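Hi P.,

Sorry for the delay on this. The queue was packed all week, but I finally got your sequence through. Input first:
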Amino acid sequence: MKKIFTLLFAAGMFTVASAQSRGFDHGKQESVYAFNGKQSAIQDINRSYDYKIAAVRQNRWMNRWEKSKQISQLERQRDAEIARVQFRFEKDNHAFGDHGYTDNRKHRW
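Then the structure:
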């Protein structure tokens, strides 16, 4: 009985300690959401273009040269879309900590 009580007490203490260490730091939490949103958007783009590239590869009516040209174009489009997503999220992250100032260079302390 003592062992069960000790085990339950230790599990409870571990739960309390891990809950306190997470805290509610909104800045960190928003950056995590932004990172997850960025990764999700990139995965969606990759999935979409993988499907398009597979469709081109399976097209029997195109010759090898046309397929390679079309696949290269799709890969360039994918890279451009991923670059746009990364730029959008980087721009949001740079503007997050500026405390309402549009240009921090004006406010040198």
